[in-house]
Structure formats: structure tokens, C-alpha cells
Amino acid sequence: DAGVIQSPRHEVTEMGQEVTLRCKPISGHNSLFWYRQTMMRGLELLIYFNNNVPIDDSGMPEDRFSAKMPNASFSTLKIQPSEPRDSAVYFCASSLGRTGNEQFFGPGTRLTVL
Amino acid sequence: GENVEQHPSTLSVQEGDSAVIKCTYSDSASNYFPWYKQELGKGPQLIIDIRSNVGEKKDQRIAVTLNKTAKHFSLHITETQPEDSAVYFCAASPSNDYKLSFGAGTTVTVRA
């Protein structure tokens, strides 16, 4: 199994630009999570999908952030417009089932907004 | 919501010694407690988890203990090796909830 796949691994962009992060969950997993990791705030859950449906987006910082899951094998997290304070490592994770099961994390996307 | 506190934030141990990381949680409904290891440049990876129907679980050199009355759980690594150097995160969740609440992490350095 290839595990959770994220792209790009690194992204450097200028303030105001649109950024799209991509995730392919493990085949057969029906839950998908987007996290943000910073030194100041640690690991924060941004949004959770179950069976491709957004269940909880209460962690999305503001309207500049949006996430989609058009099918069971693909999800995107978009930031538009990006700001320097969005600089962080963004992780996608997937799991089987809805609750209380191991979450498998991808390698992350390191985003730098200049 | 759930609040998980983790101590210490950094831990340096001599190779072969033991390392202990402690976490406390606030929500008495939490009953699933995973531990993740994050190596540099990688995503967190589950190393062991425990559910509230047991007090201790062991897997080779790592073990986790849980005290539901006191609302705390601990990770024990014995006979530490250089490859144990990483950041370790504890987390807590009710088993009927998808949301994991993570601790702030402990950076473990094993000195050769």
C-alpha cells in the first residue's frame, strides 16, 4: 500500500496567490482529515470528511480556506488568497470507519507564503 | 471540548535508558488514547494505542499505561535507541468521535 499521498511536498508562494494542496487517501478508507501543524499551535484539525461529505469544518480558520472531496480517492485544500500566517505544514490523514480508529498521516506539504 | 496536556516538552536520555512521557486529559468521556511518533520531515505515525477497558498495553520496548480515575496516561520506552529520537504526541478521543485532541508533543533525543 502506498499510504496517504500528498502533493506538492513543498510550496513557496507569494502573499495573495492561490494555493491548492492535494491528497489521495489510502484505498478503502472512508474518513479523511486535513490538519495544520505549526510550532505555536501544534496539530490542528481543519476539516473532516466521511464518505466524501464534509462533517466538521469548524477548524477552518476563515473563508479563505476551502476543502473539497469530489470522490473517495481525492481531496483538495485551497487557500485563496494566501497570507504569510498561513505558512505551516499541512497534513492529510485517512482512516477506516468513522470513529476510534487509527489515522494514517501523509508526509505533509510544507507551505511558505512570502 | 477535550484538552490534552503533555509533559515534558523535551527529553534527553542516554542510549539504553528509559524514557517516560506523561499526558493528562480533561474529558471523562474520552476512552481512546493513541500515541504518535513523528520523525523529521514525515507525518505522525501511530506507535501504540490504548482503550479505556485496559490499564496497560505493551508492544516490545514501548508500553502505555492509563489511569482513568486520575485522567492521565503515559508512554514508556525502554532500552532507548538512537532511532527512538523523534517527536511524540499523545492524543485522546471518545471512541464514538472522530476528533483526536493532540498534546503539544515531546521532543525525545537519545544520546549515543
Roughly what percent helix of chain A? under 10%
Cα-atom radius of gyration of chain B: 13 Å
Query: How many helical elements of chain B?
Result: 0
Number of distinct beta strands of chain B: 11
Shape of chain A: globular
Integer-rounded radius of gyration of chain A? 13 Å
The CA-CA distance between the termini of chain A, in Å, is: 36 Å
β-strand percent of chain B reads over 45%
Residue stretches of chain B low in confidence (pLDDT < 50, at least 5 long) are none
How would you describe the overall organization of this protein?
The complex is a heterodimer of chains A (114) and B (112). By secondary structure, chain A is mostly beta strands. Chain A is built from no helices and eleven strands. In chain A, strands 2, 4, 5, 6, 9, 10 and 11 form a seven-stranded mixed sheet that branches. A four-stranded antiparallel sheet of chain A has the order 1-3-8-7, with no helix packed on it. Chain B is built from no helices and eleven strands. Chain B has strands spanning 4-7, 10-14, 19-25, 32-38, 45-51, 56-59, 62-67, 72-77, 86-92, 101-102, 106-111. In chain B, the strands form two sheets. In chain B, strands 2, 4, 5, 9, 10 and 11 form a six-stranded mixed sheet that branches. Chain B has a five-stranded antiparallel sheet with strand order 1-3-8-7-6, with no helix packed on it. The relative contact order of chain B is 0.34. The chains are: A mainly beta (114), B mainly beta (112). At the A-B interface, strand 5, strand 9 and strand 10 of A face strand 4 and strand 5 of B.
Topology (elements, then pairings):
The complex is a heterodimer of chains A (114) and B (112).
Chain A: E1 5-7, E2 10-13, E3 19-24, E4 31-38, E5 42-50, E6 53-56, E7 65-71, E8 74-79, E9 88-95, E10 104-105, E11 109-113
Parallel strand pairs in A: 2-11
Antiparallel strand pairs in A: 1-3, 3-8, 4-5, 4-9, 5-6, 7-8, 9-10, 9-11
Chain B: E1 4-7, E2 10-14, E3 19-25, E4 32-38, E5 45-51, E6 56-59, E7 62-67, E8 72-77, E9 86-92, E10 101-102, E11 106-111
Parallel strand pairs in B: 2-11
Antiparallel strand pairs in B: 1-3, 3-8, 4-5, 4-9, 6-7, 7-8, 9-10, 9-11
